[in-house]
Structure formats: structure tokens, C-alpha cells
Amino acid sequence: MERRTFLALLGTTACAELARRIGLQTAPDSPKADVTIHISPVEMEVARRRIIKTTGYNGSAPGPVLRLREGQPVTVDVFNETKVPELVHWHGLFIPSEVDGSEEEGTPPVPPGGVRRYSFVPRPSGTRWYHSHIHAGRDMKRATYTGQFGFLYIEPKKEPGQYDAEIFLALHGWDPYLSSQGDEGNLEVTYPVYSINSHALGSGDPVRVKEGQKVLFRILNASATEQHRIALPGHKFKIISLDGNAVPVSREVDVVEMGPAERVDAVVVMNQPGVWILGEANDQVRSAGLGVVVAYANHSEAPQWTAPANTPWDYTIFGRQGETPEPAGGVVPLGFRKKFAGNRWVDHWTINGKSFPKTDPIRVRAHDRYRLRFDNQSDEAHPVHLHRHTFELTRFAGKATKGVMKDVIVVPARKQVEVDFTADNPGPTLFHCHQQLHMDYGFMTMVQYEG
After folding, report:
1. Residue range 3-54, pLDDT digits in tens
2. Topology at the third CATH level for domain 165-313
3. d(CA 33, CA 75)
């Protein structure tokens, strides 16, 4: 609905009820919002003489860290100062479809030059994020290719605070373009420069720490398309949360591996004084900027990097052992396949043989529990995301587990993964691959509540 039409109808009972029901209003006629977001062009120097022109939030990329209180109602005014419609998705929250930030679910876009108000109760607590949820296709200057992302931390009602410092790190690639890959010459996304937060490795200020500190790193892979492996030589990451959800078994690892949209909370004990590089294990990607210097107090030597061991990432080590009985709702098989679209073209993707919007919906009944069986029949890993719900990992590449709760899971190439979820948030719900190119070319379907 256009802003002009909406304002003309504001006095009617029908429109007042619509605004109340969907929690989405034009801002000027309402009390001041708790949070204001401006979507606008951003120009930033990620490295010396490397200027990035993109779209961001409140004049920066990433946008500001938003800290909200669990269970405390909030209003957010979003001003779209660009020439195209936009949406802000509140990734990981249990909120109504109409304000979730997905047009497929029924959230109205923010029109060019317009404003919308989102009203919701933020839950659950933990490290979430907010980002654009617009179709990009072959336009590398839209959606998650841009700087339209930021951390959204939902503060729990009781914060244990078992750390001395808190650092937010967002991983991203810039100035993407489509290039020919492989024998078939299909097009994939390539990035010439990367950053952690707004600066490439060697630019910006280092992360400053003190010996003996416990530092909580909240890490977000905000890449539109790429997985990343992150290491901090000489140190171990004690994983305490995945996608904002506390893990049953907290373990130390040398490397954190993340697909697009995944978040990891890890505590690092600073017990190796010096100056280090926290960054991507892949030398080419790290050299292109995906890293940040970590400097201990009273140390100013050249930053050090040591390649980590090539150990596989395993979600199940953070879970409990044992089989989970099949839920009452049954098993929903979902097969993922690539559909060759032609030489020097973008591959299309299917779920059970169909591409969105022709995919069959996942039909559920409220309050029932279901098992989604992801069967990746392709040679690429897929970070799949279920909106408005959290799921429990029950089997990963043949290994049973319990208790690991997530909203994004990377399904490895030629492997199967099973997750259980309870249909406890009625309304149209989107399921998709969080690799932007895959999502745009068919890798989506809807969860449809019935009865």
C-alpha cells in the first residue's frame, strides 16, 4: 500500500484495525519510535584508497548494534531514502509474519522515499541480526550484497555476564561481481575485497585486549554467499552459543566455521601476549581483507598469523549424544538439486524438483512437532534458514545429536541433515537457502499452517 493511500485511510476503522493487527504504520502520525533506521547510500574507505559505495543503515555498514530487551515491546521506524523498495528482516525473532520483513510472508515493503513502522515484542534472547530481504537476481548492488545488515542483540531478562569484554565482528565481502566458474562456465559471485565490520585487515583500529581477559566475540557471517573459517593463532574459541542459542556442551575449538547468516558466540581467554591476526584461514580471502588485528596492551610488534589445522567443523560436538524419536508430526523430506540454466548463466535451484514460486509448501498444524530431512543432492553446501522459528539439530551427516538449537544450518554437499521444529508461531513462514544467489533462483518454499 502506498503511503499516500495509507494516510488517506488512517481515519477509518478498517485501517486502524489493519495497523493494529500488522504492527506496521507510517511513522509521522505516531509517537516517537524506540529505534529509527535510515536506509541510505553509504560511502566508506574500507582500506587505503579503497572506497566502497553501497547502501547501509544510519550512514554506516554494518549498521548500529541494536540492543533490545527480551519481552519488552519495541517500535522501529524505517525510513527508505533510496529509489527502490526495501525490507528489513529481523532474523531469528519469533514475531508475526506481517512484520518479519519478508514480502513472501506478507510484510509490506518500505516504498522509495517512504517510511514504515514495525512494532513487535523481541524474543528470544541472544545474538540475532537485521538485514535486507529483497530479491537481487543479477544486481550485485541490492539485498545482502550491500551494507544493509547489523547486529541485533536481544538482552535476556538475566544476563550471566561471564566475560570481561564484548566484541561484535561482522564478516562481509564487497564490490561483488558474477564470474564464470568451473567446466560448465556457470556464473558465481566473486569478491575482490573483504572486511570485518567496516575495515579490511590492516585498516582501522585493532581489537585491544589485556592479558588474562575473557573476551566474548559475537561473530556474524554477513556474507551474501560465502562460508568462512576464522582462526586466532595461539588461542582457542570456547563456543557458548550458536545462532544466539546456548549450546548444551560448551567446547573449545581452534577454528570457527560459518555459513552465510550464522552467528557464533565464543569466549577467548587472552593468554598469549603479542599482536595477532584474527581472520579467514584461506590465505587469498584473508589477504583481500577478511581479518582484524588483535593487540595486547603494551605490544606493538608486527601482527602474526599461523595457519590453523584443517579440522572439519562439527556441530554435533556441542550437543548431547543419543537418538531423538521421530516427532508426532512426521518427517518432511526436502531434496535440494541444481538445475543447469546454460553456459555463462546462473544456475537455478529446486526443492523436491520445483523452483519457487512453484515449490510445494510444507504443511503443518499448530503446536505439532515435525522433522525436516534435508537431502543435499548437489555439489555445493547450503546454509538453509527457517524464519520465525528455531529448530533442533537431530542428525548431521549420519551422526545423531540432541539439543543444538539453530535457525540456520549448513547442509554439506551430498549429505543429509535432519532437524526438528515445533509449529508454534502460526502464519506464513519462509524457508530458504541464505546464499543470496540460490534464494533468488528458486531455493525457497513456504511453511503453511493449516486447521
Report:
1. 333 323 333 233 333 333 434 445 456 699 999 999 999 999 999 999 999 9
2. Immunoglobulin-like (2.60.40)
3. 5
Q: Quick one: which H or E segment has residue 17?
A: helix 13-22
| 384 close to 374: Cβ distance less than 8 angstroms | yes
Dihedral, CA atoms, 362, 366, 370, 372, nearest 10 degrees?
30
Q: Are 299 and 450 in contact (CB under 8 A)?
A: no
Is residue 335 helix, strand or coil? strand
Q: Which amino acid does the sequence have at 124?
A: P
Model confidence, pTM: 0.92
Cell of 346: 546462473
Q: What does the buried/exposed string (b/e) look like for 362-385 if buried means 16 or more CB atoms within 10 Å of the residue's CB?
A: bebeeeebbbbebbbebebbbbbb
Which residue, 170, 164, 163, is CA-closest to 57? 170
The DSSP secondary structure of 185-231, one letter per residue, reads TEEEEE-SEEEETTB-TTSSPPEEE-TT-EEEEEEEE--SS--EEEE
According to CATH, the superfamily of the domain at 331-450 is Cupredoxins -  blue copper proteins (2.60.40.420)
Which CATH superfamily is 3-155 part of? Cupredoxins -  blue copper proteins (2.60.40.420)
Per residue in 358-372, pLDDT (tens digit) is 999 999 999 999 999
